[in-house]
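Recall that a protein's primary structure is simply its ordered list of amino acids. Everything else, from secondary elements to tertiary packing, is in principle encoded there. The following example makes that idea concrete.
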Amino acid sequence: MKKLLPFLLFLFLYNGLLAQLDREHWFAPMVDRTGNPNPYQKLYLSTNRTTPFPVSIYNNNTLIGTVIISKGNPQKFDVPRQHIITTQQSDLFTPITKGLHVQAEFPFYANLRFSVFNHAEIVTSKGIASTGTLFYTAVAPIMVQNPILNFMTSILATENNTTVTVSDYAPGIQFSNGTTGAAVPSLTFVLNKGQSYIIEGSGSMAANGTGFIGSKIVSDKPVNVTNGNFNGQYAGAIATSSDILMDQSVPVSRLGNTFALVKGNGSIGNNMEGALIIATQDNTQIFVNNEGLIATINEGEYYRVPESKYILQGNNHYNLYISTSHNAYVYQLLAGFDGAGVSVATGGFNFIPALNCYLPKQIDELGFIDENQVHSNANPTGVLNIPTKLNLITEVGAVVTVNGVPPPAGTGPFNMSGTTNWVTYGIPNVSGHITVNSSKAITAGINAGTDAVGYGGFFAGFPTQPVIIATGTCIPGITLTVDPIIYDSYQWYLNGSLIPNATNPSFTPTLPGFYTASVTMGSCAPLVTEPHKVEKCMVNSSEQYTLCTNQEITPAFSSVSIPQAIDISTIAIISQPTLGTVTINPTTGQIVYTANAQSVGVDTFTYTFCGNHPDFPECETVTVTLNIAQVLVNNATVKGCEIQGQGTFNLTTANVTTQSPVTITYYPTLADAQNENPAALITNSTSYVAAPGTAFAVVKSPEGCKSIAQITLELFPLAVVADFTGSFCDDDLDGNINVDLSTITPQILPNAGYFTVRYYANVSDATAGNANVLPLLWSYTADTIIYIRVDSPDGCPAVIKPLNFLAGTKVLLLSDNMNQSVCDVDLDGIQQVNLSTFLFHFTTDPLVTATYYASQSDAQQGVNPISSAVTVNVLETFYIRFERPNFCSVVGILSIYIKVPKKSDTLADQEVCPDTKALLDAGDNFESYLWSTGETTQTILAGAGTYWVDLTFDGCVYRQSVTVSELEVPVITAIDIQKGNITVTVTGGYPPYEYSIDGFQWQTSNVFLGLPRGEYTLYVRDSSRCGVITMDFSIINLINAITPNEDGLNETIDYSSLMSKKDLVFKIYDRYGKEVFVGTPANKYTWDGIFQGRRVPTATYWYILQWRELGTVTVTKHTSFLLVKNVSK
């Protein structure tokens, strides 16, 4: 907690276990209730081994760091706070993964130094000695109620599925999770390796001051325990001062009953010095110094030794001797700094190891002994090096050195009241790395402090248990060693029997067995190590065999140290062969190697086996080398020429093996070969006469290995030439019949490629087999005979045979040369012709096919054919090749010339008046006429339309077309009438037009003026004078005024009489052009002067009246004014 005065950090390294030299260390986690800033937590690691080695740091079985240490090279490791210290209530009373496990191959010291602002402590590891299954908790009494004070204990599991039970605490205590000792009289939980469990109670409750001291911890597997206060105050009701009070515990099995303490830095009277004793058995009596019994306590009870029991032994050196009637826990309470009002803020809390003559004689080495990083009121930026005092406890008469020199004068030795066997030292202001040596048992501790903190602990506080260390793993090559420095004498034993002259710290075994060592130190009783099992190393041996195909091997020891049989179940192949297979008989243990077929050479495999001794089975690995001498053979085939179904065979030419040297003998049957029947031995192996079949060769190697190969006896292929008579065509029609004799060969000679084939013109040359051979591309002009000679590559006799070649039958034609003409239908001298239309002149045979060519050469050679559809220009000649299956081709000649027909020069298109006819004249000088009307005369009369006429001239017909068209008649499209004046509109026909209204008087103007009312006929004609068109029209009486005044006179303008006209339009407008009336069938084209329900005003209006007479396109149109005189209402 925060102090009001400068405070002292007191490092009192007094923990009989502090930094015990060991291979494994554990640190259980803690809970911090101060809430102070500037946290630090570091592992300090050191060793006496000069050869560097790695140290591994684990959290929850996960590696979080590695450092390399050696003597003179200690190391520090910054521990992430989340792995070792928590402030969260959720991490309490439940399995968590906080805590550290530190491990190396060689022994080392380990301690955890940690701080927060104004508070610091050191937890020294006791190594493997810190783990056990029975503990009693130790915390400092809490003498003032304060929420930053607490008691706590944490348990760290070293194995999986560890069940832990905590009990025997006071029923009145209240845990920080809200439960009480009465409600929960025990806590049971299960932890896996690396998991931990924190128990805590707040210092704000009076019942928690001492209620958890002496609680019992029982586990079914080894655990590690840390206990104390984070923070605590045991000096009195001092609410403003406190410090961390924490140390690692040990199991009950590691306790003793005599203890030596050196006072810390506090003055007697501040109530900061003293000791806390916790009993593990009932009726435990407590004695201090040379006094009588001062207290008797039972299991789980505690007694606090007051500071007044310290005895001044000189030079301000106080010590205290404690003994108990039963083994007990002793924790020292101390102050790290002696200053007015601040000593109470520098408390320390350290486990005290029991005194024992087997304590080590050497503490080598303690690294950075005066370091602990801390921030405080007096050192707000932090301080690393803390004033530190080294305390030593050793046997009387011991020669002590620190870093190789005696302790300074005035620092000891100091006697102790109550014992004459032990003395103490107190050496102030030590720093750096410390090595302590003594001629007798010794333990070392420190206390340290500065303005606001204090702490302490002990190193090497346990009796040494001799341990056998093995270099190597088995015989030969293993050496057993017990620490050569600590002990005075050594004696080695094998299976409990003394080994003569084996009295050195090291021993090299030559026989398997259980080895122990008995050691002594001073006047202490001998100690014996745990038995160390030593086994014989795997024996490596080798075997060699020469075999043909198989080899049987019976495993056997090459040598044994302890007689024993082979355990058949242990026989195993550990390295397989490559040229064969190996099997183990599971009943007999016999090993059988079988070489692969066709394998020769050297093969190896390795097998192993062990004996059946129950404790020391000896094992052997055997490497087997196998020389495979089997004879590799191949089945082979030999051939001979056929002579009356048999052949003569040279068996020695059969390549049955590639191995050398070998001997080969031949037999006619497999049974003879297998038995090597001398009566059946083939003696004439180079000229063995037999039918096709098999013989057998026995092949032997010098090693006696034998194999049999089968020789297949075959006859060489026999040339069998078939009779031949062939007909061939003169395909290119040049008079020569060409034949490729290479195409004849496969027709008459099977397997022709195997033989040598030659053709001759006469039998004498063929018999001689001379060079007068015919070329393969040979020709003839008439029927002939040639000869084939077939030679075998095997030296067998030649075969000669005659071959008949005939000239083939040609296709028969009706004619082979034709002249044909065609008419030029379009008078250009060129005409498209299909040659196939002329084939019937040459042949009517349906089996004959024709191919067309532009030249005779192409037709003869059958190349560059053309289509049957050709273009003939005046005169062309074509060549037709005729073919028929099984007949020879022929060529026919077809000449085609063009005849040009004649066209009429007089026949031309004509125009006529409607309903009249034109005279069409085709002209003379034609052989015949045929009109599209069916008429056959030179001339015809024809009305409007399109006609044709076929004109025949020189045997060719030319069709010529002609058109007769009618002239267009004009149309009267409109007659516009205004006050007796008319205007005529005409379209179509052939302008100019002439107009008349009586049919006699004609004018060129389309306007007639001043016509009175009445009925008229309009006449119109155009310039073609094909006729006159007429149109009747009327000049009607147009109404120009109405007086709709309801007098019955002139009430309406009524044109309902015109409703029979087509497209009748009647519209009335006012003088502004606004439409006021539209005539419809509904209003019968009659207007009464009403517009939109009201009478129109008196005024002049304008109207349009137009229509079209039924069946015409002429529009008659009248326009006039209308005076409407209305009556006002």
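The two ends are 120 Å apart (CA to CA). Confidence is low (pLDDT under 50) at residues 1-19.
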